[in-house]
Amino acid sequence: MREGCDAAPLRFRPLALTLACAGSNPAPSFQWRGAPVTPEPEVLFERRGAAGLITLNRPKALNALTHAMVQAIDPRLRAWARDPGVTRVILKAAGERAFCAGGDVRQIYDLGRAGRQAEALAFWREEYVLNHLIGTYPKPFVSLIDGICMGGGFGLSAHGTYRVGGDRYLFAMPEVNIGLFPDVGGTYVLPRLPKAAGVYLAFTGNRIKTADGLHVGLLTHAVPSAGMSALEEALCAGGAVAEVLAAHAVDPGPAPILAHEAFIAEAFASADVFAVLAALDAAAGRGGPEADFARETAAALHTKSPTSLAIAAEQMRRGPALSLGEALKAEFRVVTRVAHGHDFYEGVRALLVDKDNTPRWQPPRLADVDPAAIAAHFDPIAEELEFPAGTA
């Protein structure tokens, strides 16, 4: 039996107006040429064999995560944690383009521009609680990621037990491009990736595919897109999850990041933006095999929000000493300040609203960013992020 969270009838419906879960309220019907039309659920739930199956169901919106989806997934996961008939959870997505391309930042932008930051922060609060639930889930949590996985999609999958990438896997954390920062647990995961790969991804927002994702540890397995359905059925049939995954996994081939891995490990090791830029400029100036890569990377960094880069650097510095819960609490402090700041709204305006691709950051240069102001983003707030006890 499938159940779901009702889809918003308007493209950018305010978060406060979304329905929490199908079943708590009847899905609205609309008349069109005399025929009733019921919106597609945004997320589907199914019990199949030994598995609880979650399907993100906004393929036309690249399965972007909404507040209503978060509100539907969280209680279902808590119920399945108590259900002895569910021995594993599988998370997948409808369509072939995207697993989840991130949170619906346009909705959040609209709320903030209207002075309704509290509603936007309610989304972030509940999303981070869900991220923590997945990271502490008592049963195997398997994400089948065959398409774009960014932002909110990373938060739904990165903290689970297993992360399986298909042929279409495309990962990035591009938040610094829109004046945000790599959140949803990026503070915990990214600085722990080997050879400064996570720092590189946090600062650049660059995209990687399946072989790279497996190589740096963002993925635990690679499975061909054509084999995802068979894997899903095998997981639902029961048996040891690790053995089922191993039986379906393949070698995706050499990782392209290997061509620059040693240089990235050296240039991004300090997680300090100024030191990274100095290393890139030095490599570009002396020529050699890394000169073009260094020059292009440095040029790209200069287009990002200076404030976002500085925040990301502080995340990478603090992250290795934090638990997942502590990292998410720190991120909620930061996002509370960002939601009342400038660069997030300017970045979304430039890239997603007006699409002129000319954001006017404040301050405009990295040298003008006040380190004390960045550190203050991480200071305690009046309403700290808290996590419910257990999974009941």
Q: What features would you highlight for this structure?
A:
globular; alpha/beta; single chain; seven-stranded mixed beta sheet; 392 residues; four-stranded mixed beta sheet; 2-enoyl-CoA Hydratase, Chain A, domain 1; 13 strands; 12% strand
Global structural class:
alpha/beta
Percent in helix: 40-55%
Q: Determine the CATH superfamily.
A: 2-enoyl-CoA Hydratase, Chain A, domain 1
**Count of structural domains:** 1
At CATH level 3, the topology is 2-enoyl-CoA Hydratase, Chain A, domain 1
Give average pLDDT, whole number: 91
DSSP strand content: 5-15%
Query: Measured on Cα atoms, how large is the radius of gyration?
Result: 21 Å
Number of strands: 13
Question: Could you spell the SSE succession in H and E letters?
Answer: EEEEEHEEHHEEHEEHHEHEHHHHHHHHH
Give a description of the structure.
It is a single chain. This protein has a single domain (3-23, 38-376), classed as Alpha-Beta Complex (2-enoyl-CoA Hydratase, Chain A, domain 1). It is built from 16 helices and 13 strands. Mean pLDDT is 91; it is low at 1-32. The chain has helices at residues 67-82, 105-113, 117-135, 152-157, 186-189, 197-204, 210-216, 228-236, 241-248, 261-267, 273-286, 291-301, 306-318, 324-338, 343-353, 371-376, and strands at 3-5, 30-32, 35-37, 43-48, 51-56, 88-93, 98-100, 141-145, 148-150, 162-165, 170-172, 208-209, 221-222. The strands form three sheets. The chain has a seven-stranded mixed beta sheet with strand order 1-4-5-6-8-10-13, sandwiched between helices.
